Fold:
Amino acid sequence: MATTGQQKEPEKEQPKQQQGQEQKGTTTATEKRKPIFVKVDQLKPGTNGHNLIAEVLSSNMVLQKGRAASQHLRQTRIAECLIGDDTGTILFTARNDQVDLLKPGTTVILRNAKIDMFKGSMRLAVDKWGRIEVTSPANFVVKEDNNLSLVEYELVNVVDE
Structure:
């Protein structure tokens, strides 16, 4: 008898979930927002959700841990890649499989990128919620003299009086 009581409980909950899904489906599921692409010079510390098209200028392996011989142990790779567009450049922190995508000379589309602060300077990163796509070569010239990662920021606490 205890098992039949357990089977009936999920049935009671299902109509509530279905009603909620129907309500959501009629309002927002049909329309998706178009991505708004930003330029490198528009990036600010502590922001996220950026979409941008950039060219990879250089890639430098910073950390490589793990054993390549064993497939069961995951290999950790971190590379710092200098990427940029026609407004400036910034350092991108590539992790694991991202390192293979960001080769010098390739053009990439970064979706849902975020700004991480490292030693007072900005680094661009894409976590598990974002995406990196390799695309056709860019038709812009990278402005290499405006590197946003060379600007050092300092956190200042403002006291309200």
